[in-house]
């Protein structure tokens, strides 16, 4: 089974928040194919404001595969962070997230992407996390949330959140391990020359 990973892109997205998970899921596919299996993931980048190019933080230009209106169904939805004030206020993004939540196996955020999930009403009483610098703001804006500041990521099965920037690599590798095999996740981390220890259970 090939799972489709939908990665949201928007202006001022944090480069590693988006690029890190993209690399993990795409490398996992290459490693699996090299081992004689079908690619377990297909990554589709989805532009919050259409398929026009976005300019990430630091100026990197990124071109989404499709816009929200043409986005295919996704098994995994991942919302990276960055400067999210504009994207969290977009009703079309919130509506898309609510629609995909009902069909996706897991909806996940990296860093301040959790603010976008909160604005869409996707969070509940289960603990969440974000970048250490944004914990106080998340608690202030959504005081009913149980915000943790001492974890790299939290996975509740259908919902997952990670701390800041590089923690998205840890969460993505964890999801590879959960959705395929831990062996493939370990091999993916090895291929990426990234020191990672599985945290399953």
- Give the termini separation: 23 Å
Please indicate the count of domains: 1
CA radius of gyration is: 16 Å
- How would you sum up the major sheet? 7 strands, mixed
- Total number of beta strands: 11
- Strand order across the largest sheet: 5-2-1-6-7-11-10
Share of residues in helices: 25-40%
Structural class: alpha/beta
Question: Which parts are unreliable, with pLDDT below 50 for 5 consecutive residues or more?
Answer: none
Pattern of helices and strands: EHEEEEEHHEHEHEEEHH
CATH superfamily: Class I glutamine amidotransferase (GATase) domain
Description:
This protein is α/β, with parallel strands linked by helices and about 200 residues long. It has helices at about 15-35, 85-90, 90-100, 115-120, 135-140, 165-180, 180-190, and strands at about 5-10, 40-45, 55, 60, 65, 75-80, 105-110, 130, 145-150, 155, 160. It has a single domain (about 5-190), classed as Class I glutamine amidotransferase (GATase) domain (Rossmann fold, 3-Layer(aba) Sandwich), CATH 3.40.50.880. The strands form three sheets. A seven-stranded mixed beta sheet has the order 5-2-1-6-7-11-10, with helices on both faces. Strands 3-4 form a two-stranded antiparallel ribbon. The protein is globular and about 45 Å long.
């Amino acid at each position: 089974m090939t799972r489709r990973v939908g990665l949201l892109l928007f202006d001022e997205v944090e480069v590693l928040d988006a690029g890190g998970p993209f690399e993990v899921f795409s490398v996992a596919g290459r490693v699996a194919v090299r081992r004689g299996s079908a690619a377990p993931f297909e990554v589709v980048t989805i532009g919050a404001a259409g398929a026009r190019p976005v300019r990430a933080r630091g100026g990197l230009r990124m071109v989404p595969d499709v816009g929200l209106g043409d986005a295919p169904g996704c098994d995994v939805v991942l919302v990276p962070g960055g400067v999210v004030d504009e994207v969290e206020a977009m009703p079309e993004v919130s509506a898309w997230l609510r629609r995909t939540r009902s069909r996706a196996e897991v909806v996940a955020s990296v860093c301040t992407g959790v603010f976008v999930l909160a604005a869409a009403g996707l969070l509940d009483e289960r603990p969440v996390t974000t970048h250490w610098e944004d914990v106080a703001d998340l608690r202030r804006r959504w005081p009913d949330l149980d915000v943790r500041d001492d974890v790299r990521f939290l996975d509740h099965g259908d919902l997952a959140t990670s701390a800041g920037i590089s923690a998205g690599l840890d969460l993505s590798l964890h999801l590879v391990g959960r959705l395929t095999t831990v062996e493939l996740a370990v091999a993916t981390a090895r291929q990426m020359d990234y020191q990672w220890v599985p945290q399953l259970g």
